[in-house]
Amino acid sequence: MLVSYNWLRNYVNLDKVTPEELAEKITRSGIEVEGIEYLAPKSENIVVGYVKSCEKHPDADKLNLCQVDVGEESLQIICGAPNVGAGQKVAVAKPGAKLPNGMKIKKVKLRGVESNGMICSLQELGLDEKYIPADVAEGIFVFPEDAEVGVPVQELLNLDDAILDLDVLANRPDALSMLGVAYEVAAILDQPIELPDENLTIDESIEAKDYIDVKIDSIENNPYYGAFIIRDVEIKPAPLWMRNYLMASGIRPINNVVDITNFVLLEYGQPLHAFDYDQFGSKQVVIRQGKENETMVTLDDQERQLNENNLVITNGKEPVALAGVMGGADSEVTDETTNLLLEAAYFNSACVRHTVKQTGLRSESSTRFEKGVDPNRVKRAGIRACSLLQKYANGKVAGGVVEVDQLDKSEKSVTVTTAKINQRLGMELDEKDVTSVLSRLQFEFSKNGEEIIVQVPTRRLDISIFEDILEEVIRIYGYDHLPYTIPQGWVQAGGLTDIQLLQREIKNYLSSAGLMETLTYSLTNEKDATRFLTPDIEEKPAYSVGLAMPMSEEHSHLRLSLIPEMLRVLQHNVARTQTDLAYYEIGKVFVSREEEITNQPIENLHVAGALTGLWHNHPWQQEKKPVDFYVAKGIVEGLFAHLELDVTFVQTKMEDMHPGRCAEIRLNGKGIGYVGQVHPLTAKDFDVKETYVFEIDLESVFAVHQPAPSFTDIPRYPSVTRDIAFILDNDIPAGNVQAVIKEIGTPLVKEVSIFDVYQGEHMEEGKKSVAYRLLYQDPSRTLKDDEVDASYQEIIEKVNNQFGSYVRS
Amino acid sequence: MKEELQAIESEALAAVEKAEDSQALQEMKVKYLGKKGSLTTVLRGMGKLSKEERPVIGELANNVRASITEALDAKTEKLEREALDKQLETETIDVTLPGNPIHVGGRHLLTSIMEEIEDLFIGMGYEVKEGPEVETDYYNFEKLNLPKNHPARDMQDTFFITNELLLRTQTSPVQARTMEAYQGNRPIKMICPGKVYRRDTDDATHSHQFRQIEGLVVDKNITLSDLKGTLDVFAKKMFGKDRKIRLRPSFFPFTEPSVEMDVSCKVCNGEGCSVCKQTGWIEILGGGMVHPRVLEMSGYDSTVYSGFAFGMGQERIAMLKYGVNDIRHFYTNDVRFLSQYHQA
Fold first, then answer.
1. A209: domain CATH number?
2. A106 interface with B at CB cutoff 8 Å
3. Residues of A in contact with B339 (CB under 8 A)
4. Which stretches make up the B5 domain (chain A) (predicted)?
5. Are residues A210 and A312 in the same domain?
C-alpha cells in the first residue's frame, strides 16, 4: 500500500513528525514501512506560467515560439511539445532550475532564436511515467484555469509529497485504506482523527428505485448490494488534487468518474464500480453464480470463460461484471456517459479469491475483497462517492439507494483484564496503561469490576479474542518496555536422541576420512529420481513422488537416491577444474509404494558418497593414488567398523553401475546399500569421469545399532599368527573363503585378514593365490602350539573340501 | 710392581686417547685387559709380594683396570657418536619441500550452523524434534490456524503433490505433531530443524529448498518477556555479546501476538550502513505467543497453558554470520566454497 504523506495529513495532524519519523513509528508499531519515496526535490525556479502567445518557430516546423508570463517577468521560450497553445497555464522551468532528472535549465539559442526556460511535462517534473494520464503522456502538462501564475508547481502538483510503502500483511486489511492508516497513525501519535465529508444533497425530483432494481440469488457470497443512481454527469478530468493523490498512490487518473471511484477505494478501502446506466442493458441488477459455458468480455477486452464458482453481476440476461474483480466492456464508463449506476457491495472473500485464482486478474478491488472489507463502510463509501460525483462531475444524485442487505454489521466484544494481560506479557501494567491504548485506537470499552469489555470496531477484522487485544496493547505501548526473562519452572535435560547423535557421529567419521559434506536438492528430474536405488528400496515396486505443478523439469520429482544430484555437484566442480573430489551427504529419500500417491511416502535417511579423481596426490615423491573401488569400499568398511557393526559385501549388478565393480552391502544378511563404480555410460550422461559411489540406508543401521558397546578387557595373553595361501579358482570370491575360515576357526581365531593376492606367471590358468593371515588368541590363557596346529589343519582341510582349493607350497 | 702398574695405566690411557676407530679400541682391550694382556701378566707376580703389600697392590690393580675400562668405554661412545653424527649429516633433507598431504573433509557450513544452534538450545534444556518433509495439508496449515482459503496461505507459495499432500513450507508442523503427541498434558521445550520447500525462483536471496529451525516452549505461565529473554540469549551467542535485539509486531497465523526480531547491525554497530540499509538493525527471525487455537487444536487447554514459538532460516543466519552473499552457494556445493568453512 502506497501512502501519500500529504494525503494522510487531511485526516491526522502530522505537523510534529517528518515522513521518516512517521515511517519508523509505523514500523515499530506493527506495519513495516519498506521505503519512502520523494517525488521531486523542491525548486523555487519551476513555476506556473501563462502562455500569452504561441507561434511557429521561423526556422523549425516542429518548434513553437512562446511568450510566457511567469509572474514577475515574461519569458520567451521555445517549446517542442505538440500540445502547447496560447492561453494555457503550464509548468515553466526558469533558467537556473534543476529538473529531477538532473537537467539544468540555461538560456540557449535554438536555431538562432533565444529560449529562456523550458515548458515541462509531468515526466520531466519527476512523476512516474506509468501513472501519468493518457492525455498528457505525450506532451506538456496543462494546469486548470484557476492555477495562479508565478507560484511554484511543486505544491500544486503535490511533488513535495513523501510516499510511504507499507507492507500490509494478511491480518491488517484495514491498512489497505487511507482511513485505516489514519486510525493507526492517530493511535500511534495519540492524535484525534478527522473523517471525510459524507454530506450529500439529494435531487428530490428523482428516485433511484424508479431506475433500478436489485436481486441477489447468491446471498451467502453477496450479503449486501447497494445501487446508487447519478444522472447528468459531466465527464471531464478530476480535480488536480485528486489526480495528484491518485498518481502518488500508484493509480493513473482517467476521468472524474473513474478517478472518484478509485479515490474512494483508496480512502475507504471499499471497491466501487460505476456502470454506464444507459449501456447496462436493463433496469435490474441480478447477482448470481456463473454458469458452465457462459462467457463475458471484461474491461481489458478479454473473453472470460465462467463457471458456477464465479459470482457475476448481470442485467438479468447476461453478465456485466465479474463481481469484485473486473467490470465488463459493454457497460464501461466512457466520454459519452451521462447517467451512472454506482455499485457499492460486499462480496465474500473466498468467492473473489476463487475467481482471481481462476482468471489471474488481481486488481486493487479484488485484493481488498479477498482480504476483507469493513461491513460498516460499504454503504458509506457509496455515499462518499455520490457526494464527490455531485461536486466534481455535476451529477444529480437520485434519492434513496436500492439495496439488498443481509450483511452482519455487528461489532464483536472481547473481555480482558489487566491481570491477565500482565500474566501473559510478564509485565506490571496499570489498568490505565491498557485503557489508554484502547482510547488511542478509538475502541469503545466499558468496565465491569476488573473486566474491561472492548467493543471492536468492524474495521479491525483481525481482532476477535483476548490475545488480539493483548497484541494491540503491547504494540502501541511498545515492545521495548518488555523485560528480558527466561522461562522458569519446569526443567528437562535437553539433548539429542541416540539416532541424532549417531548422525553426528557419521558426519564426524566421514569428515575425518577426508570427505566434504554436500547439501543438494531433494527435488530432481523424473528420470533421475528413480536411479541408483538401494536394495531395500528395490525389494518392492517403488515410485517417485512428483509435484502437481513443478516450476521446472529439473526439480519435478522427489529423489529416491542421493547420488544423481551429487553427481551433478561433481560435474559442477569438474567443469571448474576441481578434479579431485570426495563428497558425502546425509539426507532423506522419499519412497512411495503406490503408483498413484495418496499417502505420505516413506522417508528414509540415507548416507551417500561420491568420489572421483585422485584420492592421494603427492607428486614430488611419486605418490599418486587415484580413487578406485577399494578406496570407496574402505570408507564404507571404516564407517561400519566405527559403528561396531559387521557388514558383508556381495558382488551385484545394478543398472547404473559398472557390471563387474559393484557390491551390495549387507547387514545381518539384509541388503542395505551398495558401493561401486558408476557405469561409464551413466558417468557420461552426467558428464563426469571415472566415479565411485556408495549409498546406505541409515534407517536399517539405526534399527540394529547399539549406542554404547560394553567394555572388553584388553588381551593379557600373547596371540599367535599363522599364514595360509590357498590356490583358488578365479571366480571364487576371496571374501567367501575368509568368512569360512573365520567360521571354522571360531572361537580361537579372532581375525582373518588377506595380505596377498596373486594371479599370473607361475600360476595355473584360471587360478589365483590368496594369502590369509590368521590371528589366534584366547583372552584367558596362553595358547598351546598343538591346539593352534590342530585348528590350522582343520581349516585347511575344510576350505579345500568346500572350495576345491589347495595350499600353495 | 707399583711402578709397573702405573706405567701400564699411563701407556694405556695415552693409547686409548689416540685410537681412531673401534677396531683399535678392541685391540687395546685385549692388549691391556685381556687374559694375556699386560695387566694380567703383571698381576701374575702378586704371589711374590708380602702379605702387607698384597692388598695395596690389589687395590691399585683394580683401580688401573677400572680406569682403563672407563677410558675405553668413553672413547667407544665418543667414536660411535661421531660416526652417527657423520651419518646423520649425510641424511639431511630439504625441509622446504611440501609434506605428504592429508585429505581434509568437513561439514557443510549449514550443518555447522545448525549444530551450533542446536547445541545452544540443548544447553537451555530443549530437545530436538524432527518430522516428515512431505506433509499433509492438515499439519502444515490447518493445525497451525491456517484453514483452507485463509488469505495468509498466500504468504508461502506451496509445492503441492495432491490436494492433501505437499512439501512442508515450514518446520512448524513438527511443533503441531509434538504437541499432539504429548496430548496436552506435559510442558514442552523443543527445537525442530529441517528442510522446507517453497515455490520460489532460485536467485541470490531465494531458494526453492532451504532450512529452518524453530523453537517451541509450552508451560504454565510462559510470557512474551520469556521469548524476548530467550531470543536475546540466542542473538548474543550467535552474533556476539555486544549485540542488542528489538522486537517489532508482525503477523503469523499460528502466533498472537506475533513479532519479528531484529539484531543490531554488527558491521556498523547500529550506526547505519549499507548492510543494514541504514537502519542499524537486521531482521533475523519471527516468533510470538502460540495462538490459543493452535494450543487447543493439539489438546492443550489455553486457559492453563501458554507458550512461545520462534523460527528462522538457517541460511539467513549463516549468511549474516559469515557474510555469504548468495544463498545458491549453499546448494551449488562448489568445493572452493565448502572448504572455506572447515572450522566453522
1. 3.50.40.10
2. no
3. 516
4. 409-484
5. yes
A624 contacts chain B (CB < 8 A): no
CATH number (domain holding residue A471): 3.30.56.10
Q: Tell me how far apart the terminal alpha carbons of chain B are, to the nearest angstrom.
A: 84
A655 near B CB under 8 A: no
CATH class of B109-341: alpha beta
Domain span holding position A145: 46-156
Query: What is the SS3 string spanning A126-193?
Result: CCCHHHCCHHHCCCCCEECCCCCCCCEHHHHCCCCCEEEEEECCCCCHHHHCHHHHHHHHHHHHCCCC
Nearest to B105 among A30, A471, A515 (CB): A515
CA A44 to chain B, closest CA, distance in angstroms equals 30
pLDDT band at residue B344 under the 50/70/90 scheme: very low
pLDDT tens digits, B221-247? 999 999 999 999 999 999 999 999 999
Mutate to test the interface with B, among A420, A427, A565, A600 (most CBs of B within 10 A): A600
Residues A672-679 have a mean pLDDT of 98
Are residues A686 and A735 both part of a single domain?
Answer: no
My answer on whether A227 and A143 are in the same domain is no
Instruction: Report how many domains make up chain A.
Output: 6
Residues A673, A537, single domain; the answer is: yes
Cell numbers linked to A724: 595360509
Question: Is residue A713 included in any domain, yes or no?
Answer: no
- Contact (CB, 8 A) for B249 and A172: no
A489 within some domain: no
Does A121 share its domain with A259? no
Task: Please tell me whether residue B260 adopts helix, strand or coil conformation.
Answer: strand
Contact at CB, A482 and B154, closer than 8 angstroms: no
Counted residue by residue, chain A has a size of 809
Specify the pLDDT at position B151: 67
A600 lies in the same domain as A650: yes
CB contact under 8 A, B100 and A484: no
Residues forming a β-bridge with A89: A50, A143
Q: Write down the domain spans for chain B.
A: 2-90, 109-341
Residue B66, min C-alpha distance to chain A (Å): 43
Judge contact between B227 and B235, C-beta under 8 A.
no
CATH number at residue A583: 3.30.930.10
Q: Is residue A526 a known part of a binding site?
A: no
Report helix, strand or coil for A69.
strand
Is A309 inside a domain boundary? yes
8 Å CB contact of B257 and A467: yes
What is the C-alpha separation between B211 and B196, in angstroms, rounded? 6
Q: Are residues A280 and A170 in the same domain?
A: no
Q: Is A488 part of any domain?
A: no
Do residue A547 and residue A616 come from a single domain?
A: yes
In this prediction, residues B133-150 reach a mean pLDDT of 91
pLDDT in tens, A597-645: 999 999 999 999 999 999 999 999 999 999 999 999 999 999 999 999 9
Say if residues A23 and A36 touch (Cβ distance below 8 Å).
Answer: yes
Residue A522 contacts B where some CB pair is shorter than 8 Å: yes
Q: Cβ B332–A569 below 8 Å, yes or no?
A: yes
Give me the DSSP letters along B142-154: GGGT--TT-GGGG
Q: How many A-B residue pairs are in contact by the CB < 8 A criterion?
A: 249
Nearest to B335 among A349, A573, A584 (CB): A573
